[in-house]
Amino acid sequence: MALLEKLAARGVPLYCLFEHILRFFCLPEANAIRLGAFRGIVISGDLQIMKPEREIFEFLLQRYGLVAAQTVFIDDNAPNVAAARDVGIHGVWFKNARQCELELEELLASP
Fold first, then answer.
1. CATH superfamily, domain at 2-109
2. For the whole model, what pTM was predicted?
């Protein structure tokens, strides 16, 4: 949650791709998540398209006018990260907050 807050404070555009909104709010850390930090939220279960299906990533890009090569997808599930990469999105496989932050810093520093 601290990393999410850091990114939001830096003005990094954040979007949420989640499978089911009910599962989202059942997470212990859900109360700490500031939904207002996200510029957009896609609930894949509502669309009947689930990660790691290519179409969900394409939908996210199209809905919010994002460029795949300028977008980063973070997930704790390696197949989901691989699927995002197949669409041209940078992928970060979340293992822990520090590792994720270091990888994001490297991507944000790239031209």
1. HAD superfamily/HAD-like (3.40.50.1000)
2. 0.85
